[in-house]
């Protein structure tokens, strides 16, 4: 099958913002793309929409309850053998303390630190959009 015909795998991810910073998490050994940094989230399951997926994944991965603030532009990226559509949401923490259940690290990044981690390739356009829209997100 040519790559044009691959149905993308929908993956929701959360740009968790707090104190003028966004949270990045590091994929653990054993996960695909181990060692890369990403936004927490995961695959949209049958019967749920991307927003429901996001709320579920953030509870599962970080033990946080989050609320949605805004959407960003989805990023479609071809990894070997799979095409993903990464669907980003800007969120804030409603309750809970971060508990890393799956990732091996987490870091809060300010506007000028956004490119200091080695992002999963699909995340790069999203990080660029976050940087471009930073003042919009942080002054509202
Ligand atoms: N959650 C999340 N996944 C991302 C991001 N960027 C990115 O390329 N991905 C990819 O999206 C796919 C689905 O994410 P996932 O969190 O459910 O990954 P997983 O370990 O369950 O996937 P697997 O079952 O294929 O090993 C993975 O291939 C992951 O590498 C991101 O920012 N957040």
UniProtKB/TrEMBL annotation:
Catalytic activity: 8-oxo-dGTP + H2O = 8-oxo-dGMP + diphosphate + H(+); 8-oxo-GTP + H2O = 8-oxo-GMP + diphosphate + H(+)
Tree of life domain: Bacteria
Source species taxonomy: Bacteria, Pseudomonadati, Bacteroidota, Cytophagia, Cytophagales
GO molecular-function terms, A-Z: 8-oxo-7,8-dihydrodeoxyguanosine triphosphate pyrophosphatase activity; 8-oxo-7,8-dihydroguanosine triphosphate pyrophosphatase activity; 8-oxo-dGDP phosphatase activity; 8-oxo-GDP phosphatase activity; metal ion binding
Designated name of the protein: 8-oxo-dGTP diphosphatase
One family name in Pfam for this protein: NUDIX
Protein family per UniProt: Belongs to the Nudix hydrolase family.
InterPro entries documented for this protein: MutT-like (IPR047127), Nudix_hydrolase (IPR020476), NUDIX_hydrolase-like_dom_sf (IPR015797), NUDIX_hydrolase_CS (IPR020084), NUDIX_hydrolase_dom (IPR000086)
Stored PANTHER family: 8-OXO-DGTP DIPHOSPHATASE, NUDIX HYDROLASE FAMILY PROTEIN
Residue runs in coiled coils: none
Keywords linked to the UniProt accession: DNA damage, DNA repair, DNA replication, Hydrolase, Magnesium, Metal-binding, Mutator protein
Domain Nudix hydrolase: 6-132
Gene3D superfamilies in the record: Nucleoside Triphosphate Pyrophosphohydrolase (3.90.79.10)
EC number(s) given by UniProt: 3.6.1.55
GO biological process: DNA repair; DNA replication
Cofactor: Mg(2+)
